[in-house]
Design a protein that fits this description.
Number of domains of chain B: 1
Radius of gyration of chain A: 19 Å
Structural class of chain B: mainly alpha
Oligomer: heterodimer
Largest interface: A-B, 42 and 49 residues
Number of helices of chain A: 11
Strand content of chain A: under 5%
Shape of chain B: globular
CATH topology of chain B: ABC transporter involved in vitamin B12 uptake, BtuC
Largest sheet of chain A: 2 strands, antiparallel
CATH class of chain B: Mainly Alpha
Helix content of chain B: over 70%
Shape of chain A: globular
Strand order of the largest sheet of chain B: 1-4
Distance between the termini of chain A: 45 Å
Order of helices and strands of chain B: HHHHHHHEEEHHHHEHHHHH
Order of helices and strands of chain A: HHHHEEHHHHHHH
Number of helices of chain B: 16
Helix content of chain A: over 70%
Amino acid sequence: MDFHLLFQLSMNGLIVGTLYGVVGMCFVLIYKASQIVNFAQGEFLLIGAWVCWWLLTKYQLPFVWGFLATLVFMMVFGFLLQVIVLRPMIGEPVISVIMMTIGLSIFFQALMKWIFGVLPQPYPPVFSVKSVDIFGLQVQTVYLMAMAVSLVIMIGFAWFFKMSRMGLAMRATSFDQQVAQSLGISVRQVFALSWAISAMVSAVAGVVVGVVNGVSSALSFFGIKVFPAVILGGLDSIVGSVLGGLIIGVLENWAQFADSQYLKWGNLYEIAPFYVLIVILMIKPYGLFGKRDIERV
Amino acid sequence: MATQAFRPCGDFKSSYAADQTIFPTAWSRNFCILGVVLVAAAPFLVDRYVLSLLIQIGYLGIAALGLNILVGFTGQISIGHAVFFGFGGFASCFLNGKAGIPPILSIPLAGLMTTAVGLVFGIPAARLKGLYLAIATLAAQFILLDFFGRAEWFTGGSNGTVADPVSLFGFKFDHDESFLYVVLFYVVVLYVAAANLMRTRDGRALVAVRDYYLAAEMMGVNLTKYRTLSFGISSFYAGIGGALYAHYLGFMSIEGLDISFSIQFLAMVIIGGLGSIMGTLMGTAFMVLLPQGVNFLARSLDGSAIDHALGLHEGLPFLREMAIGAAIILFLIFEPDGLAHRWKQIKAYWKLYPFSY
């Protein structure tokens, strides 16, 4: 057994896992607030990463300003998306809402390919130091940044939902919309804001992945990979989505380890999370932390 | 009045037979027969390109009808229909190539094999509902597609397999002109079968499960049985569609069986109208003709200023994808009941003209 490789892969898994966790949190945020399963989550990453890339390369903005401009853009984008496209869908059956987000996902994926092409584009270098030495492992600086950014986002989410007025309003809305409304919370505002925040934070994850791997339409696959993570953690639990993301991230890297060392099947890295997904849905469909309100039939 | 062309508003049926007819008026029946005759005469009327589109509408329409039975009539969501379509194609190639069964038999057999696979996936699916089922079928899509790529004995791996053309008593249906009749035969048989299914006890049970599963269970409908059954029926249609596709192209590979194909099936069903049998065919036709329409538009703008500014020519594949996404979004916002509903409104408008009330 190659312990060094296993350790390195576990490390990768943790880093990718925190990113899954961040995207999962955004996904859960939308689901909790507006009961919409967002199949277009991956496109938020994609759009955010492309917009930031465009600002950095075309206008030569410094990274910080380009990044902030991207966040503002994505916030407006998420807000408009909810108001224009998803507000008419309130009260429609589940299938229609799911199809709507799938339609959005196809549309924006193709739009991004059309505007920016299909070839992966590297980001301009963000850090001057390429990699640092931690416990004898060479870790790329961008990976460290990814970890740091994810942790900051998670702490930010915790603060937002525990302390801030709007966060409390959102939790009240997800608990019971009618009661929240009778307490003077604007449910429409909460819906729109949840989409805006979700789009913005997803874009952060998109930019981070873009800096690490370059931007390409493969980014939108994060939106699919997030399903195993959030189902494992429980669809309506933010803590669960973070934990689910970490578990799925480590698990797929272990699957790759087992695959490359012993099984030689190939492609297990991509498929293993979906086997996990099926198993969870069979034995514990509400996930680790989800509310147990699923009726077995 | 069997010959009436006009149907009064409201439900004035006085017998079960009248309530259960496939065609509510004689005109609607004649219209369908006329449609079938016109398609049958198509090889003498139109060129090969139109024929290939008709064949495409045929085999995709069969598979889409299966999805409509699952989604529109039973209320289950599947985001993995393309892999069942693919399984039908591979199964028919396998039966034909490895076991030497002639295609005329291997197509229905492939349908039955796909039914078996659908039932296996349907058993766990019967325990889940709504979005959990959607996510489970999403996983099934990836797992089965991975299996197709791996199982070389069955699918030929990444190289794909070849399929013989359909033949009957030595006559080979290997041209568009002749294969059209094979597809037409299957479309007519399977669409009539679906229309009949909805008149039976089982069909009504499916609708009851969709409308409210608890009420259905109280009425004595076995939920697990009917949810699994609808998965089986849907896979059967998908399998037949896939098998026809394989024998039409003479080749089957995992190319193009990805999730976007599954979504296209869903789009056909949504655009056609959930729970409408003829609507499925309209939705399929819409989805088949949509890329052609985009091509046509782009070509008519060729060389113009818009073309240069936007790079329409290079972006054509992406424009087609965008059109699919936009069609889904626009239909869901403006016409959530699909083309079938719009068609009904158009008919009502002309029947009641000029007094629309």
